[in-house]
Every structure is written in structure tokens, then in C-alpha cells.
Amino acid sequence: MKNVYLLEIDFEFNGQRQTITPTILKDKENTILIDCGYPNFIPLLEEAAYRHNISLDSITKLIVTHHDVDHIGSLAALKQAYPQIEIIAHELDSPYIEGKNKPLRAVQAESTFDQLPDEEKPGIEQFIAFLQSVEPASVDVTVSSGEHLPWCDGIEIIHTPGHLPGHISLYLPTSKTLIAGDVVVIEEGKLNIANPQFAWDLDEAVRSVQKLLEYDIEHLICYHGGLFQGDINKALKDLLKVYLS
């Protein structure tokens, strides 16, 4: 995985220890960040990038896999701090990133609010307010499925909906690397669908996992879990058995 850098970031959120793995791609002209964490994560991104001798002021582009808050929370702040950054996202996700549409996680939460016990409602109200407080950012370039971007020896956009409708994964043919976003996560060394109970469309999420089998993947990077260790093809098939049996 030449010129692919995993930014492993450990932090505490809502009283729980978590780890996320944004990724940086580099070539002679471009430094591309993929996803950027929660709000106020610039110092954590700076520290993680510095471990690879990369400075955030060298970033030229930022590709968003989808608009969940742990992937776009620092997007607007990064754009303000480093205005040269071009923001790239799937055409279906762009209206949510730009604040034109209500975040779909807020829509989900609101749809179940009236059925919740009264003691749970304040927490959900706080969650909705948090999502809606995330500062929007303008998307400079929208992409669609199958599109090939010319940077870093080539990047193929794979539309992998289900987790959210505009979710994308990235395939790097030269190194046979898949940057999965949240189409799959690593849990206890195994692949799983990210928070299946909250998938926007679980059947579609399963079909997106099936789509990954069309690619020759030697390296699999998950936003939640980092670099997968093991037989990727077998792990994907084992995961599908769980949901298709």
C-alpha cells in the first residue's frame, strides 16, 4: 500500500473509548484525506498525520464517504483553516453535507421519537440537536458510481449504499486496496455491517457487501477497525452468509 497512510485516532466520546481510521493518499501533486472525524478533531488529525510526517496544510482534497457526523464533523473547520482543500462527495450525499437537507440520522431519530419511553426522549433530543449543530460545508465536486479519479495512481468510486443512501467506498486498483468507509467494519477481528440496526436500508447494505466481491482486494481499510487482517474474500462471504441465510 504505497503512499496510503492510516490515521488511527483514539479518543473518548460520550464516556466511551473509540477509534476511527481516516486515510490519507499521496502522490507528487496531491494529498487526499478521506473522512475527518467528529467536530473539533483538527488537533487529533494533525497529530495522527504528523506521525506519518504529513502536515494538514498539504491536503489538496478531502473525499467524504458519507455524511454521518463522525465522518464530516470537522469538514467545515478544515475548509476554513485550509481553504485550498477541494471537498468531494457522492451526488446523493452532497445536499446533506451542504446543509440543504436535514441529516438522515436526525430523520431516523425523529421518526421513532414518539414511541420512545419518556426517560429516553431528552437524550434523543440532545442527539438531534448535536447533528443539526454540525456546520455545513460546500461540496466542490460530486461523484457517481464507477467514476475514476486520476489522482494517486487512480481511484475508483464505488457507490455502496445501505448504511446511508449516498455512501461510497474507494478502490485503488494499483495496490488492490479498498477504503471501505462504513460499508463494513471490523469487530473482534471479523467483518460486520456497521450498526445494522441503524442502517438506512439493511437489504441494500447487504447488496453493497456483495458488490465488493467483484473487486480484487488485497488490503481492506475500515473506518471502524482499521486494516483487516485475514482472507478478505472469505471474510466477506462469511459475513454474507449471516445475512443471507
UniProtKB/TrEMBL annotation:
Coiled coil: none annotated. It catalyses: 3',5'-cyclic UMP + H2O = UMP + H(+); 3',5'-cyclic CMP + H2O = CMP + H(+). This is Glyoxylase, beta-lactamase superfamily II. InterPro entries: Metallo-B-lactamas, NDM-1-like, RibonucZ/Hydroxyglut_hydro. Residues 19-224 form the Metallo-beta-lactamase domain. Counteracts the endogenous Pycsar antiviral defense system. Phosphodiesterase that enables metal-dependent hydrolysis of host cyclic nucleotide Pycsar defense signals such as cCMP and cUMP. The lineage of its organism: Bacteria, Bacillati, Bacillota, Bacilli, Bacillales. PANTHER family: METALLO-BETA-LACTAMASE DOMAIN-CONTAINING, METALLO-BETA-LACTAMASE SUPERFAMILY PROTEIN. CDD domains: yflN-like_MBL-fold.
